[in-house]
Amino acid sequence: MRKTELRTLLTGRGLVESPRWHGDRLYFSDWSAGEVIALDLDGDDEVVAHVESLPLCTAWLPDDRLLIVSSRDGRLLRREPDGSLVTHAELGPPGWNDIVADGRGNAYVNRGGFNPMAGEPFRPGFVFLATADGSVRQVADDIAFPNGMAVTADNSTLIVADSYRHSLVAFDIGADGGLSRRRVWADLGEGTPDGICLDAGNAVWYADVPNRRCVRVAEGGTVLDTVTLDRGAFACALGGTDGTTLFIVAAEWRGMTEPEMVTPGSGQVLATQVGVPQAGWP
């Protein structure tokens, strides 16, 4: 296994999530602060949006507008060029989690079937599709705990992290954005996937909170690479000038039912170089 050299780009944050490389900066969310932040490679950061939402996940549309899941009020927001936030789609009751937008402008948003933070009994979750005209419909169900999602570069496949089933689940994407041919893309054994991203080698990097690592896997589940951390890895994204920088957002995990789910100030943005560049979305 290669020697991992990690750089710390930013520290002192809360529950950090949803890293997305766009233009020449990394965008990520601090759920504890209700902020979406842009960070450059020199470590300079800027708050670009403030939304009181937990979770607080984002995706970029092909026209360079940012989508923000406002879970608390069940809306998908869109950040306009002037920085204002408008409603992109009405999602429905609270509980929304992660999002990915494909190259056609379709946005896939998932939600759990229960609220673990409130101690509700388990029910499996769903994936919904929000199209450019603002319509929203359910396109998948029975995801035990849906987390990170990614779309392949040819817009043909959606991959969903199912944390509770320790697997990555794939669907074919139809011309209308609908999903079909559900299958297990990778059985991760003891791996617990959170945020994910794709690379040009048709592999997935997944972040793993309880196992404190990011792992690169091939279809079928063969482990290709591992980056170990001293705290939980919540999500990862490829980017940088040539697409070979793996950005990881990490924090010290306390638990879903704790008043503070992570240790305050333990949130970090880390970076390491990898051999295969980014592909697809995010």
TrEMBL record:
The lineage of its organism: Bacteria, Bacillati, Actinomycetota, Actinomycetes, Streptosporangiales. It comes from the Bacteria. This is SMP-30/gluconolactonase/LRE family protein. Keywords: Hydrolase. Gene3D superfamilies: TolB, C-terminal domain. Belongs to the SMP-30/CGR1 family. Residues 17-251 form the SMP-30/Gluconolactonase/LRE-like region domain. It holds the Pfam family SGL. The keyword DNA-binding does not apply.
